């Protein structure tokens, strides 16, 4: 059977898109290079996502949220502070509380292992999706009516549209001739979880230190996820420390915010870079998620941006079909690109500027960021727009991000 859509990449955005499209009536094949079960393994990935309220609504509309709600932690407050190298922190210069947003909490923390597992289970129950794991897309050729795809098993498939959800090194983009722009940050994110002695009360912290920002994100059962960005040589030294020395160093920086804590689970590290596709579309091809834009994790927005792509692309395709248009007609794909590209690029570059301004301790940078943050804190309009942006509620929202089905 010819598919409507083939999706390369079974990380998080690929499965979310497959579900959204199948629920809108499309036949989808989802191909993931990673073997089944690898991602669910304990110790696979220490990542936890700060899911904006709009992303949570999308997961609810897809029917996935009830399966993960028990493991998700609502963000009750966000506190930012400008740390100094010795570890003492100046008072919070920007704080937000749950009551400031009428719609509910700004977002939720959820670990990768729960989210991915719930998406895979929902896909298994969806007859319109064929899911292949441990299989790669190795070749593609766009024609006037369809795109032909060759898999690593030798099988050939064809569909109206191929979507690359295959991450920053997207082969789908490369084979379609889409070039990328970007640069390394010279920083590495050290990621681990801590078990706290005292409850975290749902407070998320962002501490700006000269080597890079440290995020403290509240998880279920009074654990927190730490995303500690450091200059890459320092990070390599810290990564190689035994657990007790690593914990001592971390506590010097954030112990005043967490209280006593123990390491729990494995430690991970991710080199940080920016990677933006020059176009999100090519003939019979669209890109979504990190394949379109890999950004700095400073404000935890990467997956949220990807889920915005998912919601917009699914809506554009469903509306095109209702109008009797070819799913991959140039004007249909252009609608998707117009909707998403400006938002994603401006957020990616905005995070880049924030990271540069905060990841150093020159007196000028300290003065500028203090001034900027005090202005946001004091003025009602920027403050409100900051909160709505963090909750993913600004801009023209696709239906799924409003919690409505397609
Ligand atoms: C330290 C850190 C912390 C983060 N914290 C947050 C956060 O708090 N909130 C947030 O919103 N985001 C966060 N992010 C960003 C988030 O992790 C990513 O944006 C998101 O995981 C990207 O998902 P994806 O599905 O687009 O790509 P990926 O997860 O990269 O998945 C790509 C998939 O494609 C598969 N693949 C590759 N090539 C092929 C091929 N040829 N054929 C078939 N399959 C293929 C791969 O096997 C993989 O499974 C963080 C990132 C980092 C590094």
What this model shows, in words?
It holds the Pfam family FAD_binding_3. Keywords: FAD, Flavoprotein, Monooxygenase, Oxidoreductase. One of its GO terms (molecular function) is monooxygenase activity. One of its GO terms (cellular component) is ubiquinone biosynthesis complex. Strands 1, 2, 8, 9, 10, 11, 17 and 18 form an 8-stranded mixed beta sheet that branches. With 406 residues, the protein is an alpha+beta fold. It contains 11 helices and 19 strands. Helix content is 35%, strand content 30%. Flavin-adenine dinucleotide (FAD) is lined by residues 8-14, 31-34, 47, 49-50, 136-137, 165-167, 171, 189, 191, 227, 270, 289-290, 297, 300-304, 306.
Q: Look at the structure and name the CATH superfamily.
A: FAD/NAD(P)-binding domain
Shape: globular
CATH topology: FAD/NAD(P)-binding domain
Strand content: 25-35%
What's the CATH class, please? Alpha Beta
Helix count equals: 11
- Helix/sheet category: alpha+beta
Question: Compounds present?
Answer: flavin-adenine dinucleotide
User: What are the segments in which pLDDT stays under 50 over at least 5 consecutive residues?
Assistant: none
Domains counted in the coordinates: how many? Answer: 1
Mean pLDDT, rounded to whole units?
Answer: 90
Taking the sheet with the most strands, its summary is: 8 strands, mixed
Helix % is 25-40%
Order of SSEs: EHEEHHEEEEHEEEEHEEEEHHEEEEHHHH
State Rg: 21 Å
Termini Cα gap: 24 Å
């Amino acid at each position: 059977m010819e598919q409507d859509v083939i999706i390369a990449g079974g990380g998080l955005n690929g499965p979310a898109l497959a579900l959204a499209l199948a629920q809108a009536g499309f036949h989808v094949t989802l191909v993931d290079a990673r073997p089944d079960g690898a991602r669910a393994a304990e110790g696979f990935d220490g990542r936890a996502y700060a899911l904006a309220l709009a992303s949570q609504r999308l997961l609810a509309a897809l029917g996935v949220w009830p399966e993960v709600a028990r493991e998700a932690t609502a963000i009750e407050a966000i506190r930012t502070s400008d740390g100094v190298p010795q570890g003492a922190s100046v008072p919070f210069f920007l704080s937000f509380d749950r009551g400031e947003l009428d719609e509910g909490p700004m977002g939720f923390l959820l670990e990768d292992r729960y989210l991915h597992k719930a998406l895979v289970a929902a896909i298994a129950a969806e007859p319109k999706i064929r899911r292949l794991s441990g299989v790669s897309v190795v070749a593609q050729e766009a024609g006037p009516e369809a795109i032909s795809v060759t898999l690593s098993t030798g099988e050939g498939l064809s569909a109206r549209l191929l979507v690359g959800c295959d991450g920053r090194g997207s082969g789908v983009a490369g084979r379609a001739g889409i070039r990328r722009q970007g640069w390394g940050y010279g920083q590495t994110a050290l990621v681990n979880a801590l078990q706290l002695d005292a409850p975290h009360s749902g407070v998320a912290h962002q501490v700006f230190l000269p080597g890079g920002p440290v995020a403290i994100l509240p998880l279920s059962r009074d654990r927190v996820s730490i995303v500690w960005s450091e200059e890459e040589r320092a990070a390599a030294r810290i990564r190689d420390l035994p657990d007790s020395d690593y914990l001592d160093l971390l506590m010097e920086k954030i112990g005043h915010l967490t209280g006593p804590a123990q390491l729990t689970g494995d430690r991970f590290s991710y080199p940080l870079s920016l990677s933006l596709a020059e176009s999100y579309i090519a003939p019979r091809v669209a890109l979504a998620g990190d394949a379109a834009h890999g950004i700095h994790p400073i404000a935890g927005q990467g997956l949220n941006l990807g889920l915005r792509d998912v919601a917009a692309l699914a809506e554009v395709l469903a509306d095109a079909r209702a109008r009797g248009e070819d799913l991959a007609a140039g004007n249909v794909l252009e609608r998707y690109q117009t909707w998403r590209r400006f938002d994603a690029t401006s957020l990616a570059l905005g995070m880049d500027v924030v990271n540069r301004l905060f990841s150093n301790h020159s007196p000028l940078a300290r003065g500028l960021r203090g001034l900027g943050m005090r202005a946001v804190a004091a003025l009602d309009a920027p403050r409100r727009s900051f909160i709505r942006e963090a909750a993913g509620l600004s801009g023209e929202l696709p239906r799924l991000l409003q919690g409505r089905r397609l």
